[in-house]
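quick one
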Amino acid sequence: MGKNLLDKVWAAHTVRELPSGQTQLFIGLHLIHEVTSPQAFQMMREQGLKGLFPERTIATVDHIIPTDTRQRPFADGQAEAMMSAIERNCREFGIRLFDRDSGDQGIVHVIGPELGLTQPAMTIACGDSHTSTHGAFGAVAFGIGTSQVRDVLATQCLAIQKPRVRRINVEGKLQPGVYAKDVILQIIRTLGVKGGVGCAYEYAGEVLRRMSMEERMTICNMSIEGGARCGYVAPDTTTFDYLRGRRFAPTAETYDEAVRWWQGMASDADAAYDDEVLIDGGAIAPVVTWGINPGQAISVEERIPSPESFAADERETADDAYTYMGLQPGSPIAGTRIDVAFIGSCTNGRLSDLREAAKVAKLGKVKPHVKALVVPGSQSVARAAEKEGLDDIFRSAGFEWRLPGCSMCLAMNPDKLSGRQVCASSSNRNFKGRQGSPSGRTLLMSPAMVAAAAIEGVVADVRPLLRAEGA
Ligand code: SF4
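structure w/ iron/sulfur cluster:
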């Protein structure tokens, strides 16, 4: 019986098995940002530690930076302190920082891939839950806590439990107007937000094979929302073509050799898995969350589920969701009035996301009661989008075109909901208060669906809009 990718990557990076049952795993690439790194550097100083391989750590700034101005110092003193700290820490520990002056700044999970830092069969760690994004390249990528950031800085290793591997086969062909975001929301809806606990998800099947790297990143990004420790797609020619020529990818002289190594690390055809799940891609309709976790999702054609439809252990969370969201069981999700539309984040702030949303934005104007923001995932995405004129399309439709950053995904910067505003959002979490207001409400959906909600003023099915315009 053959091996899956996780088994192979794990074996290649194991330093030793620990008495605890965990593995001491070598980490090939360490990504840091301004929010979860300051305490780690402080611990390094207090313990007199030096970085072991500083060239394997790459820093950027994304969570706290304003998206409406480049001006320093930032108006928010705490944000300015975090920015100054990462600048100082990177200087002191010899770490490369992609700040705004670099031209390559952006959300950590957007710039790693676009710079070619993220490569197949790597182990990658970052002090951020959505590090699973990098699994799109066939990397084994984990979100880690602050003390583990210190561990990786000091030893380039993590003590970590090897996950089980579940293969999720998404077969068939997606309908027009159905995107990677709908696929991953459907997977989480089907398997539950705790369905992946203790697992790595290997995404496979015809739908994944057809997807671009950016679409695969959207899928892997939300693995953590399904409870999985990480998620990945075995590398193939789509992966190799994406990476060719990127700044930190292997050079032309060594590329073919690298591809042979990467191909060898992909899951074998007869690989064993702990379990397998089949999802019918052709049956997926655009998905929208109605509750307070990403598993509380329905298709845009459905009605908010009734309390009786939940298992006993899900009732409490469902009741909490009805109360918090103010949505009535039995009412359709389509037609739900929104106040804010947010297109961006490490899930859906890449060029292809902006292109799909712009196709919809072209079809109308943002309703007067809606505040609509487009926040590119990186400076590189912003440049490419502006070159294609996407910024003009969004501005003409009434969207604000902002500077790159995490923005309203987590609202650690000035982009926040206020009061009980409802936000149609292309981000990845709809937890209570996630977007900056303790009572703000988030409806997750694809970027095209967010654009449709912005121009309709309510949750709307993007498919008839696209069909009517032949978009
Ligand atoms: S966009 Fe959101 S989920 Fe992604 S890194 Fe930033 S805050 Fe985290």
